[in-house]
Structure formats: structure tokens, C-alpha cells
Amino acid sequence: MSPLSRRALAAAALAVLLTGCGGTAADRTDDRAGAPTTPNASPPSPTRTTQAARPLARSVPVTLRIPAIGVDTPVMRLGLAADGTVQVPPVEADDRAGWYGHSPTPGQTGPSVILGHVTVGRYGDGVFRHLDRLRRGDRIAARLGNGSTAEFAVTEVRTVDKADFPTEDVYGNVDGPELRLITCGGPRSGDGYRDNVIVFAALTSASTSAGER
């Protein structure tokens, strides 16, 4: 599977990527705001690492583990809502991360995008509450539906103003298998947060379960 198509990239540029910005209202069902209209004019490019593994076949993510911040979450599939915004995981006690289904699956060539909440209203912390604590070299493991596991290493953690969301850096084509994790961060702004936290990671290895051909 190739990286995002031009059509899907255009949709992503118009869609909401500002997930997990919940206030404290108990009846919030999602947390949305307008997508950035102009990417950061000159953002630093994500640090690249030498790929230690070949790209994997397409297989949707089932779980995501980030040991450094205690994340072990099921992963649901997200698409686009009727209004052109990216769907977000439901705000509920059993919070989950969500893979944006118009991006490559983890381990395929291109940027695979996974979104998560930083807070979930009355339920407290979201699954990506401590995403900004990750550092270069921290490990991320995505378990796939075909039984294999794609292992990534963090190359960069960026906090950006939502008005300067780097759409091309997050969704643009890259030469190897990469991962993007996105949530909200920074100071509170109204009922949400001012910034986005974006983790960039590159595939380092892949494993296959016993019995997998």
C-alpha cells in the first residue's frame, strides 16, 4: 500500500486532527475544532533513522503499546465524518486510541497516523495523557491483525500551536514505514487545549507470531 493518496491527503488537511482536547463537561461526545488552513511555514523535518526492517504487508492495527508511558490500548479504526472532520475515539471510561483508516497501516511505507485523547471529560485522563513525555529512542509496538508486531522507535516529539499544525509533515509521503501519534497539549484554551503533541517514529523491526507464514 502506498502512502496517502493525494485525495486522502487533501481530506486530512481539511479534517480535524485536534483530538483529545476535552473539557470537563460530562455530556461531551467528542472534541473537535477547525483544522489548520496553513501548515507551519518552516517546520523542522522529523529526524530520520536508518530503517532496520523492510516494510510490512497491509494489516490493520489491533493494539498499541508504549512502555515508557504505560500505554497498552486497543486500537479502533477511524474515518471521516460527514462534515469532513476526522472521527475521534468516543469519550468514555474505557478510552482507546484510533488509527486513521486513510493512512497506511503501521509498518507499511508511509506515515501511519494514530490519534488519542489527552483527557476524556468526567472520566479523567485519556490514553495519550503522557504522550509529551516520550523521548527519542523510546519504543512503540503496534500489534497487527495478521499476528505480526511492528516495532518503532521515537525520532522526534513536537508540540505545535494548532494554528500551525504541520499537515505535510504528518501526512505527507515519506520513503519508509513511519508512525505519527497525535493528541492535544499545552495550556488550556477555553474548553480545550491550545497545542497539539505529535510523536514521530520510524520502524525498526517486525516480529511474527508462531504459526504465521
How would you characterize the overall build of this protein?
- The chain has an eight-stranded mixed barrel.
- By secondary structure, it is mainly β.
- It has two helices and eight strands, in the order αββββββαββ.
- A hairpin with a 3-residue loop joins strand 5 and strand 6.
- It has a single domain, classed as Sortase (Sortase, Chain: A, Beta Barrel).
CATH topology: Sortase, Chain: A
- N-to-C series of helices and strands: HEEEEEEHEE
> What's the architecture, going by CATH?
Beta Barrel
- Please outline the major beta sheet: 8 strands, mixed, barrel
CATH class equals Mainly Beta
The number of helices is 2
Low-confidence stretches: 13-20, 22-51
What is the number of E strands? 8
Q: Tell me the strand order in the biggest sheet.
A: 1-2-3-4-7-8-6-5
Gyration radius, to the nearest Å?
16 Å
N-C termini distance: 20 Å
Classify the beta-strand content into a percent band.
25-35%
Helical percentage: under 10%
Coarse shape: globular
What's the domain count?
1
CATH-assigned homologous superfamily: Sortase
Give the mean pLDDT: 80
Structural class: mainly beta
